[in-house]
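Mods, move this if it's the wrong board.
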Amino acid sequence: MKPPERLQLDTDRDPWDRQSGESDALYAHFRTYLELGPGRTVRKTAETRALTAPYLRGVAAAMRWRERADAYDAEARELYRAELEARARDAARADAELLDKVAERLGESLDWLDARHLKPADLVRLLDVVMRHRRALYGGAGVEVTVSGPGGGPVQLDATGDDLAALSPEQRRRRIAETVEAVQRALAAASGADDDD
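Not the wrong board. Structure tokens:
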């Protein structure tokens, strides 16, 4: 069999779609090649389609398989990247909502926490974690938070840490979930709900 003439790609179609100068049989061969994925070869396609490799090499060259597959792979990578970015935005949004809830609960608890059950250092640590996470999510300059400590003296902490910036959205989510658990334990301790006796 003689390979077909060199294919002219249609400008109104994606290169991986069937082209106007491409028969159903030739497009089926190309689809098999394309579906083999990034490790695809003409030899594997010939084996799959029960055709000779020399014949299919001629078809692949004329039908511009490599060029069309490269365009397909580039589009797939772009779609994947866009999906990851969308997921990262969604995760950041969810992280921000969770962080806002934690910060709100911490703020509410400041008025009624019993210092006998929660050490000021624990509260400062919780606030520090929340503020560092907020800064990592929202960006911007460091924030100074003043909390009344024992005897009414101010406790200042610098929430300029940006260690969350290097974490993936999943790692940030886990870190925030750990913070929520710590806050819940502290709130339970302050209310006496976790007393064993």
